Amino acid sequence: MQGKLYLCATPIGNLEDITYRVVRTLSEVDMIAAEDTRHSLRLLNHFEIKTPMTSYHEFNKYDKAKVLVNMMLEGKNIAVITDAGTPGISDPGEELVRLCFEAGIEVTSLPGPAACITALTMSGQATRRFCFEAFLPSDKKEKSRILESLKNETRTIIIYEAPHRLKKTLAELKDYLGNRELTICRELTKKHEEAVQYTLEEAINHYSENEPKGEFVLVIKGKSFSEIEEDMAKTWETMSVVEHVDMYIEKGYDKKEAMKLAAKDRGVPKREIYNIYISDK
């Protein structure tokens, strides 16, 4: 009989946030795969859990995943935990889950703490639609592509950041997104937890005078649809009349309606747009 994989969420700060189910499961499985066994040992000792541990982290996640899959194929039940939060969310776990599905091994996730959801719900920003970017990549080209893609993101954006990179990241976000509103959450569930709303400019000014401390989650307001429409409408200012009309045609308007909209944008009679369009086209 095959074993099973249990993805166990662990506290992101306050040990009381662990669930009874996670404590029981960690006590009952045959092996715990931990991101940092020394770090996790403190958690296991606190709850008097004696289950053996093995390391499973970013640098061995491919090779070790194969070992763990073989153990489960032999009938062992394995739990995965990270230093904090839910495995697979900006932490090792994704690769192992994929291999388990390929091998036909049952996978279950035991819900619990996740910094991104904790921050979102206490941020005061819109929660119905959001996107999670985790830590922005260190590679400049890749980071630039991601930030460029977020310029017109209408969902609330969630980004993780370390204290030593926070000021640089805030400046980059302002360069790409403009002076967007955001909530900066810090040290979630811990003694010095805080969530403060800023504009990006205010946040940059604040942390230029106050050195960042702790782990940060940035919850950034999405761009409104009306702002996107206004930005799109302004693009005609650098266009010829033909380009202006064609812009609306490409959006799905028929030629007559496209000319009417272009005339409205420019504050001129529709006949004038028609004459120029026909002569220049």
What topology emerges from the helices and strands here?
Layout: E1 4-8, H1 20-28, E2 31-34, H2 37-46, E3 53-55, H3 61-73, E4 78-81, H4 94-103, E5 106-110, H5 115-122, E6 130-135, H6 140-149, E7 156-161, H7 166-177, E8 181-186, E9 194-199, H8 200-209, E10 216-220, H9 225-234, H10 241-250, H11 255-266, H12 270-280
Parallel strand pairs: 1-4, 1-5, 2-3, 2-4, 6-7
Antiparallel strand pairs: 7-10, 8-9, 8-10
Order of helices and strands: EHEHEHEHEHEHEHEEHEHHHH
CATH superfamily of the largest domain: Tetrapyrrole methylase, N-terminal domain
Rg, rounded, reads 26 Å
The backbone outline, from C-alpha atoms, is elongated
Q: What is the strand content?
A: 15-25%
Strand order of the largest sheet: 3-2-4-1-5
N→C terminal distance: 73 Å
Helix/sheet category: alpha/beta
CATH fold-level label of the largest domain? Cobalt-precorrin-4 Transmethylase, domain 1
- Count of DSSP strands: 10
